[in-house]
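Q: How would the structure tokens look for this protein?
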Amino acid sequence: MDYKPYQPSSNTPQSNTSSASSQSSAVTTTKPAFSVPSSAFPATPKTSTTTSGGTPTALQFTQSSSSHTTQSTSTASTFNYSPSSSSTNSNQAIPVMTTAELTDLRKLVEDVCGIHLEADKQYLLETRLLKLLIEYDCHTYSQLVQLCRGAKQNELRPKLVDLMTTKETMWFRDEHPYETLKTHILPDLLKNRAPTDTIRIWSAACSTGQEPYSIAMCVNELASSSASYNDLANEQRLRIKGTDIASSAVILSKMGRYDMVAMGRGISDVRKNKFFTQQGRAWVLKDEVKRMIEFEQANLQADLSHLGLFDIIFMRNVAIYFSKEFKVQLYAKLAKQLKPNGYLIIGSTESLLGLETPFKLEMQGKTSFYRLKK
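A: Here is the predicted structure in token form.
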């Protein structure tokens, strides 16, 4: 899973939960005073801004109105934001983030979900957080920060996490780590663990579940390949834990239900027909795969000791979005969650080079992984 902030393109920004083709659908907010089509989230900003003393104070967005039934039939309209007004035609425009607010929001995002944003991510933050400004009747981003750190933090922080993390994942990403899991890592653990031991695998920051389910399919394939591996299908012999910071991702993971877009990313027809049942336009994982996995919400910044010890930890394409300081802290925590002779598997483009960690690098074919130093 890519545990990363939403990255809008330079031409047509998109929602982190919707395709570009769905951006014209209406958005329901908790404030009926606003009439805001979702195509305003995000939109292309004009180059002109309202200024006061040389400081930008407001930003107007233009949008196409041809696909939204409540809009004018003209080719473009201007959307103005006004939390305090009961009129949907207010002249008060969307607030622009000040330098101080940008600093405060970058710190808030890092405190809440660990994601380190550079100073050039102002537009990303404005795009992602505009929905919360409207929903919570905020005139400025400073007010939103105050709510996130104050009275509304329990309600707002999960929403902030959902907006700032992208559910970007796929089945069997890079393929070779899963082949190495079947041909080397699991056979090695079976030889070096007692027959009564439970082999535990953790998929950290697993997004909507494709990674842990890919692991489960590999285990199933190995268990059916030889009588010597049959006991892997026993729930007492092997268990998989999937965690993610976003509660919405955990809910979707538990469902094990995927649309055609998700099913077109990395899974073969053979595996699709073997491990899934088609229900209308959706594909649902069979119980033989789902029952191998437990999902729960977990923030990698928090204490992780309650998760227990693992033989294998997958944390792929996650730490690249964290600061160097947090990476060092995180890998030290992961070392405490790993059993002796266990395996840490990170992304194919990731490396612990230059970091002080308790791990040493090993290779098996194309796959690099890390084990605890002795």
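The domain at 176-372 is CATH 3.40.50.150 (Rossmann fold).

The mean pLDDT is 80.

Upvote if useful.
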